[in-house]
Each structure stands twice: as structure tokens, then as C-alpha cells.
Amino acid sequence: MAEKKTTKKVAAETAAAPKKETVKKTAAAKKATVVLNAENAGFKAGDVYQALAAAEKALSVSEIAKTAKISEEETLLGLGWLFKEGKLATADEKVTLA
């Protein structure tokens, strides 16, 4: 009989104890890794160029990233390549093909 009382007591303490919050990792918490080499920069430049060509208008960095389906860091890498080649122009914080 003593066992039953102990079991009920432990069960009551467990139920009364505050529950610990579990921390869930989300995709937003995961940081993107950008590989810095000439080949990858060239591919990202191609993605950015194609996104701008398809849009046929000036886009912001976040709009380019969304259209090209790449991260904003990768978008900036591609933009740098294209700016260096003189293929881009800016207007009101947006980028367009030159």
C-alpha cells in the first residue's frame, strides 16, 4: 500500500511541475553558408542576371534573391561580380541591367 501512495505522490509532483519549453530549430535560425570561389561567384552572377532579365525592371536585393531562389548573401556575391563587369546599373536602391 505504501507503494501506491508514493506513486500517486510522484505523479502529482510531476503533473504540478512546470513543463520545460522545447527549443525548435527553424530554417530561419539556420545560417546560410556561402562558398567563396570564382566558380560559385560566376554561377550566382548568372542566377542574378537571369532573374533581372526575366523581370525586365529594377529589383531590390531581396526581390532578386526571391526571384532567383538564392539567399541574399549569394545575391550580393553575384551582384558584385556583375557590377565589376559593368553589366548593372542602380536607381533608387534597386538594380537593373545596364
Task: Note the total helix count.
Answer: 4
For the CA atoms, what is the radius of gyration? 26 Å
Strand order of the largest sheet: 1-2
Shape: elongated
Backbone structural class: mainly alpha
Largest sheet, in brief, is: 2 strands, antiparallel
The chain-level mean pLDDT equals: 81
Q: Which segments are poorly predicted (pLDDT under 50) over 5 or more consecutive residues?
A: none
Proportion in helices = 55-70%
Order of helices and strands: HHHHEE
Ends: how far apart?
Answer: 86 Å
How many strands? 2
Approximately how much beta-strand content do the residues carry?
Answer: 5-15%
Walkthrough of the structure:
The protein is 55% helix and 8% strand. The protein is mainly alpha-helical. Strands 1-2 form a two-stranded antiparallel sheet. Helix 2 packs across helix 3, helix 2 packs across helix 4 and helix 3 crosses helix 4. It is elongated and about 85 Å long. The mean pLDDT is 81.
Describe the SSE topology:
Layout: H1 2-16, H2 38-55, H3 61-68, H4 72-84, E1 88-91, E2 94-97
Features:
98 residues, mainly alpha, two-stranded antiparallel ribbon
Explain briefly what this protein structure is.
By secondary structure, the protein is mainly α. It has 4 helices and 2 strands, in the order H-H-H-H-E-E.
